[in-house]
Design a protein that fits this description.
271 residues; alpha/beta; TIM Barrel; 12 helices
């Protein structure tokens, strides 16, 4: 299947494009280079989405706005991982044009419900209202508020991150919250919560992951994860993950350059 994306209108709702039934969406995180030109380059690779990471980067709102402006020139889905569950932060990145938010450290159903509420307008939530911003193409929706809110509500993706044993314990309730479009599993933080950072073979971690996979399958909620190699990505898809990030733009650049340097060095050594 041809995964290449071209510039054009986004007619299909975001949820259907991010979670298609016929394939697994692939993407990456952006956390270092806030450049408009990043998006056409990424679109040419065949990935489906990119996540602008505000949790583990120094990105300002201006940086995020610059990146999201670049995304609008492509059909890639542009998500933002916000630093925390915060109504103003979520509303602001959505006003800047994000197609959805990933929110870290969601530990219970109440927090998941708040996430949905902060991201959607009445009657589905209580998102802060703004017009004449990137969200509506710098237009004016005052005369069509009902249509504007309905369109916005149907084109926003809400993805809570489960990264603790508390989140694992509440995963079925989180999956059951109306408006939760997917779940993202934070491996490193969950391993730390389970007892030992980076130990993905410890029994508590294995059991926690199993419970998350089972709940997402039961509620038909797509589950996402980072997988930094082809082997790991294939394995996670076979295990039930339905959304894969291939790493960050810096890690992929680093790996590709290192591989080429190693190959050239090896060939020169053999001659």
């Amino acid at each position: 299947m041809n995964r290449k994306h071209k510039k054009g209108a986004r007619a299909e709702p975001i949820g259907g494009r991010l979670f298609p039934k016929d394939r697994i969406p692939l993407g990456l995180f952006i956390w270092e280079f806030p450049m408009v030109g990043m998006w056409p380059v990424l679109a040419s690779t065949g990935i489906d989405f990119a996540v602008v990471d505000m949790e583990h980067s120094a990105f300002s709102y201006r940086d995020v706005g610059t990146l999201l402006a670049g995304a609008r020139s492509t059909e890639l889905i542009a998500l933002v991982r916000v630093p925390e569950l915060n109504r103003n932060v979520i509303g602001r990145v959505l006003d800047l044009g994000a197609d959805g938010v990933i929110v870290p450290h969601i530990s219970n159903a109440e927090e998941a419900a708040n996430l949905v509420s902060y991201a959607r307008y009445h009657p589905l939530g209580r998102r802060n209202v703004a017009f004449g911003c990137p969200l509506d193409g710098y237009g004016n929706a005052v005369d069509g508020l009902e249509e504007f809110s309905q369109t916005a509500n149907s084109n926003i993706v809400c993805i809570p991150m489960i990264e603790s044993l508390e989140g694992v314990s509440a995963v079925r309730e989180i999956c059951g919250i109306s408006g939760v479009d997917g779940i993202w599993l934070g491996f490193a933080d969950l391993s730390q919560s389970a007892g030992k950072l980076g130990d993905y073979e410890q029994d508590t971690f294995i059991e926690g992951e199993r419970r998350v996979l089972q709940a997402c399958k039961e509620f038909d909620v797509p589950l996402g994860v980072v997988a930094t190699s082809v082997h790991e990505a294939t394995r996670q898809i076979e295990r039930g993950y339905r959304m894969i990030a291939l790493g960050t733009e810096t890690s992929i650049l680093q790996q590709e350059v290192a591989n080429r340097v190693a190959q050239i060095t090896a060939e020169l050594t053999d001659t």
